[in-house]
Amino acid sequence: MQKSDTMAELAKALVNVQSKLEGAKKDQENPFFKSKYADLTSVWNACRDLLANNGLSVVQTSSAIEGRELVLDTTLLHTSGEWISGQLSVPLAKSDPQGLGSAMTYARRYGLMAIVGICPEDDDAQSTIPAKKAEKPAQPKPATKSHINLEWLKESLDKLQDGNIEAWSNANILSFLKTKYKVEGKRVSEAVTKLDQKQSQEFIAEVHEALTKLPKLE
């Protein structure tokens, strides 16, 4: 985090904003997690007028690192000249303009919510998991051959990202696999190799179901 030398006027304005701030409306469907979430437009609608009426504005700038991740800087400015800035990095699902656009939208949404203090009515992140009693750490499973055709999986995920980029980003898929099946990996193709046959069938069914709901191209 970076900030100006003084913060008194900005802090006073932000207190006034947050005292009247309401949650961003959950207006988009996420078929992967079967839930609704607040998109970037909804987040902006929740705070734009309040920020302007209190002399505040937001600037977001970005840069890409070696085609692997996007780094977004979100700065909250006040008419007094005071400011505060935070940084968020997001892995790129694909190193092309589409992947960059997906990461940009995702980062802008979460960067804006964080710096203003917006709590969406619901989002596309994993649900909060109740705390469990301490258990013995699970022993790592031996490496096994994937039950999923990885070439088919890549082609399918590319189609889903074309149709619903944000919901089917690699970051969301990895979070889903970790939460539901307790498997991890740096890439989706690595994580799915750790699924057993039953888990693989369930995951394939999720992907197939989402593919059937994509809008048909004319």
Outline the structure in words.
The structure is a single chain. 43% of the residues lie in helices and 17% in strands. The chain has 218 residues and is of the alpha+beta class. It folds into 2 domains: 2-116, no CATH class; 150-212, no CATH class. Mean pLDDT is 80; it is low at 122-132.
SSE order and pairing:
Elements: E1 2-3, H1 8-20, E2 28-30, E3 35-37, H2 40-53, E4 56-65, E5 69-78, E6 83-91, H3 97-116, H4 150-163, H5 170-181, H6 188-191, H7 197-212
Antiparallel strand pairs: 1-6, 2-3, 4-5, 5-6
Number of helices: 7
> What's the SSE pattern?
EHEEHEEEHHHHH
General shape: elongated
**Low-pLDDT residue spans:** 122-132
Biggest β-sheet description: 4 strands, antiparallel
The termini sit apart by 47 Å
- Please give the domain count: 2
What is the mean pLDDT? 80
The helix content is 40-55%
Give me the count of strands.
Answer: 6
Strand order of the largest sheet: 1-6-5-4
Question: What structural class do you assign from the helix and strand content?
Answer: alpha+beta
Question: Strand percentage, roughly?
Answer: 15-25%
